[in-house]
Amino acid sequence: MKLATIGVGNAGSKLIDQMIEFEVETGRNLCRHALIINTARTDLAKPENIPEDRRVLMGDTHRKARGHGVGGDAEIGAEVAKTDIDEIRRVFDDVEIHEVDAVLVAAGLGGGTGSGAAPVVIDEIQKMYDEPVYGLGVLPGKYEGGRPALNAARSLQSFVNKVDNFIAFDNDAWRSRGQTIEQGYEEMNEELATRIVTLLAAGEVDESEVGENAMDSSDIMRTLDTGGVSSIGYASTELAPAKQGLLSKFNDEDQSEDESTDAAKIKGLVRRAVNSRLTVPCEVSSADRALIVFAGPPEAISRKGVESAREWLESAADTVDVLAGDDPRPGSSTLAAVVLLSNVTETPRIDEIQNQAVDAQNKIREQDAVREEEIQSLITDDDNDLDPIV
Ligand code: GDP
């Protein structure tokens, strides 16, 4: 697939930057256009793989932003994006939309800029183009507290209502002990970029190498066409150097034994992808559609294995809509399986965030009311004898 990618806010921009790094490292070609948008000048300078003229600072004249961010306030994030929408639209005008299949908008949902501004940006893109728009959103960890949960729960509603599919990543599930927050984020961003690029870059292989089993971009788009929230699983294995010795090729028994071991490995890889950490933990059987991409050297992808892996996923995800295809990467020393579970409806973490958000909203309202009373009692004399001047 070919994408126009837009990172909004700090996490969103870092994710797009990391995706480009991974695709360059692995010789893929997914992100045809990259754009980052932020309210904080310092965060806008951080990414390493985004051209200077593709970085947009918004709200630099807004009295509550002024180039320093929006302090985690998603309402201000949305307001700033609405005010500066003409400027944002002008930058989109440079995107050769006919060159891409879809637009991907990434953001961290717990902050102010990504959670508030990204839905405004998505509205504008939906108005300008017919191409599908996918969201890539990071859910805040529980440890971050009530305000990020409230931003995320509200922004998730806007995102999911506006995009064609929302791919979620849960910081809580991916947090490791003994790391600083920044180290943790770096590792998480690498993990997420590996999954998203391996999945979406399939279907972009050299025409001369396309075999009949190659995944097509339209298959990926069809699987994402469900709306709702999606999760991605991934597993990879290092391949042993190619077996030497022509003799074994002539020995039918050995060959069929090899084939069944290869088939079992492929199926095992897919089971591992689904049973290990998903980008957002979910009930696999609640998926509406699923898709598997095998990325690796063509000779390592056993047809028998692909078929039994597909059948296994069909039963685990309890859906007949399971597609499987290859992303042939000749000469690669790894074989990866990436599994897209599209429109999963049972994700406990999202319920948790909503509960945390409702508590936070009630507490904020109570505190606001109490504070108003306290201010009035502070500035009013005991018998209320005094009046304000004007
Ligand atoms: P914004 O710039 O106002 O949108 O805020 P940030 O993007 O800095 O942070 C928003 C949320 O994204 C935070 O609450 C974190 O949950 C998350 N976050 C921030 N940076 C990263 C990152 O590099 N990786 C990941 N996975 N999450 C991040």
UniProtKB/TrEMBL annotation:
GO terms for molecular function: GTP binding; GTPase activity. GO terms for biological process: cell division; microtubule-based process; regulation of cell shape. Residues 2-207 form the Tubulin/FtsZ GTPase domain. It is found in: Cytoplasm. SUPFAM superfamilies: Tubulin nucleotide-binding domain-like. Pfam families: CetZ_C, Tubulin. Transmembrane segments: none annotated. Keywords: Cell cycle, Cell division, Cell shape, Cytoplasm, GTP-binding, Nucleotide-binding. GTP binds at residues 112-114, 144, 171, 189. GO terms for cellular component: cell division site; cytoplasm; microtubule. PANTHER family: CELL DIVISION PROTEIN FTSZ-RELATED, TUBULIN-LIKE PROTEIN CETZ. Belongs to the CetZ family. Involved in cell shape control. This is Tubulin-like protein CetZ. The lineage of its organism: Archaea, Methanobacteriati, Methanobacteriota, Stenosarchaea group, Halobacteria.
